Amino acid sequence: MTASQTSPGVSERQAAAAGAAVEVGERARPATPPSLPARRLDVFPNPAAERDYLIEFQVPEFTCNCPLTGQPDFAQFWIDMIPGDTCIELKSLKLYFWSYRNEGAFHEKVTNSIADDIVAAAKPRWLRISAKWNVRGGIYTNVVVEHRGDGWRPAEGWTAPPVR
């Protein structure tokens, strides 16, 4: 009995577990992938705009290309942000980071461009981006960028998280 010939009330999984043959096929590539890289950041209203609170994003798998050699560069990004009136939507952030995959850019340029784009999109009260680039030529590069919104002052006793 094949999976398509199972008895009424018996799922294909149950039939397979009972030793029935499983139908095997190949998944067709979709005409339009479900997600594509995009140089776009979507925002949504901050649900607690009256208060300062910290949002921490980790991007453990960032890739771009060396502008001189074309070889891949890999980095881990940490984004610490005290939002203003809006927050960054996570899927758009993922697709935004993905958009750098085939771009050639120096570490310093990429890190500063990402900070500029997040500031332009979300207008955070405070932002820090820490990028730890994998070794290249025996040298590790860490780039840290900070932004402080006009007139924003941290609450008394507040300390920024340590640079990663």
TrEMBL record:
Functional pathway: tRNA modification; tRNA-queuosine biosynthesis
EC number: 1.7.1.13
Comp. bias intervals (Low complexity): 9-23
EC class name: oxidoreductase
Keywords, in A-Z order: Cytoplasm, NADP, Oxidoreductase, Queuosine biosynthesis
InterPro entries per the UniProt record, alphabetical: GTP-CH-I_C/QueF, NADPH_dep_7-cyano-7-deazaG_red, QueF, QueF_type1
Location in the cell: Cytoplasm
Entry keyword annotation includes NADP: yes
GO cellular component terms, A-Z: cytoplasm
Binding site for substrate: I88, E89, L90, H107, E108
Disordered, as annotated region: 1-41
Catalytic function, reaction form: 7-aminomethyl-7-carbaguanine + 2 NADP(+) = 7-cyano-7-carbaguanine + 2 NADPH + 3 H(+)
Residues of the active site: C66 (thioimide intermediate), D73 (proton donor)
GO biological process, one term: tRNA queuosine(34) biosynthetic process
Family matches, as NCBIfam families: QueF-II (TIGR03139)
Its job: Catalyzes the NADPH-dependent reduction of 7-cyano-7-deazaguanine (preQ0) to 7-aminomethyl-7-deazaguanine (preQ1).
Protein family: Belongs to the GTP cyclohydrolase I family. QueF type 1 subfamily.
HAMAP family named among the record's database cross-references: QueF_type1
The name this protein goes by in its record: NADPH-dependent 7-cyano-7-deazaguanine reductase
Species in which this protein is naturally found: Piscinibacter koreensis
